Amino acid sequence: MQACPYNPVQMPELPEVETTRRGLVPRVVGRTIQDVVVRDARLRWPVPRDLARHLRGAEVVAIRRRGKYLLFDLPKGHLLVHLGMSGRLTMVPDDRPAKLHDHVDVRLDSHESLRLNDPRRFGAVLWIGGAAEKHALLRGLGVEPFDPAFTGEYLHALARGRRVAVKQFIMNARVVTGVGNIYASEALFRAGIHPARPVGRISLERWNGLAQAIRDTLSLALDAGGSTLRDYVSATGEPGQFQNVTSVYDREGQPCRRCARPIKALRQGQRSTFYCTGCQR
DNA sequence: ACTGGCTCCTGAGGGC
DNA sequence: TGCCCTCAGGAGCCAG
Predict the structure, then answer these.
(1) CB 3.0–4.6 Å: which of A37, A159, A178, A267 could bond A199 by disulfide?
(2) Is the CB of residue A151 inside 7 Å of nucleic acid strand B?
(3) Active-site residue among A8, A15, A21, A68?
(4) What average pLDDT does chain A have?
(5) CA–CA separation, A170 vs A18, rounded Å?
């Protein structure tokens, strides 16, 4: 089974989105938006025509993350950005020529622009007037993996009576936000749970282990992302040198790092899953 | 209420 | 070398 041709470390999963957020804060928060340049409005949803009207003259008060959504808080609303699967947000000098797929620039009063590059255009740039939490894209989102409310009890209760496979369950943003395809396989390996196991047949104890495994998996990636922080927000946006090591993802046929049995692959909901038959039950 | 399948898009990689 | 085909991913949306 062929995995995504992109190096996993370059794909914006939650740790990469959070790393991007942290990198942007010191250079964007407190700045005033001077203008917006939209070169190609055809993202996941069209970039609103009146985006510049909403943003011009507004100060960025804060940058938050909800799941994989970035929220730029402005006095009268929010700029929502999603990186999809190939989006990059970088800070560039205002006079830097746009390259292929540089779809949107948000020009600040610091002679720098926040630039979105997104070859596959699965990303989104939207305006939210009013309370962000009430927006359709954010309203139904589940708990954040680092929220104290994300516990084995929470998962156990939500899974009660349901038959969906655990891997699809933890990738469901209505259950828990920010767990993408790569980290779903990795967390299940860490927790020793077979990805196809129906969620209604998982004990509370094992849910506790999985909640912790998800946090650990994301934390490790976040720490790694920290080492490439500069790269994520640099003028070039070049990926870092960090070598991402996965336990199971994209390792079909290779020996399990724990028990040496060959890693297996299967498809769940049009997505590739990787797991170890020896370590996961 | 759940669940599974479809969809958007581009670029990488394999086969010939 | 180069062309063509397939496939990967996030997640909203819809049908059953």
Answers:
(1) A159
(2) no
(3) A68
(4) 88
(5) 19
